[in-house]
Amino acid sequence: QAQLVESGGGLVQSGGSLRLSCVGSESWFSDYNLAWIRQAPGKDRETVAIVDWSGANTKYADDVQGRFTIFRDNAKNTVYLQMYMMKPEDTGVYFCAADDNWGRAVAGLFGYWGQGTQVTVSS
After folding, report:
1. Phi, psi at 87, each rounded to 5°
2. How far is residue 75 CA from its own chain's centroid?
3. Residues in the chain where the model's pLDDT stays below 50
4. What string of H, E and C letters represents the secondary structure of 29-96?
5. Is residue 79 within 8 Å of 33, Cβ to Cβ?
6. pLDDT value of position 8
7. How much is the pLDDT for 27?
8. For residue 42, is it left (φ>0), alpha (ψ between -120 and 50) or beta?
């Protein structure tokens, strides 16, 4: 069973920064598109950032554009989400997900999911 394991969540004050990491257990990791998806309390899941297999192409949700950066290190089977200028509305469980098809990934459809890491931003 392929695994994606997130880490780096925690409590941060409004305006602060946090970096999430997600490590993949499989050799295919470097061939897959990767994303961070946020599940906020009482809200639908939202894909906040996607990066393609090469790292050259990224997409962001409007509400994180300019504040969050997704990047990957295929040599370490790791994808990161660097978050700056965080807001209370960034609070939620952040999931790492992977899919080998860019179109499906952009549509929010992923074949593999991690267990999530909690991020809480205090006001």
Report:
1. -125, 160
2. 18
3. none
4. HHHCEEEEEEECCCCCEEEEEEECCCCCCEEECCCCCCCEEEEEEHHHCEEEEEECCCCHHHCEEEEE
5. no
6. 97
7. 83
8. left
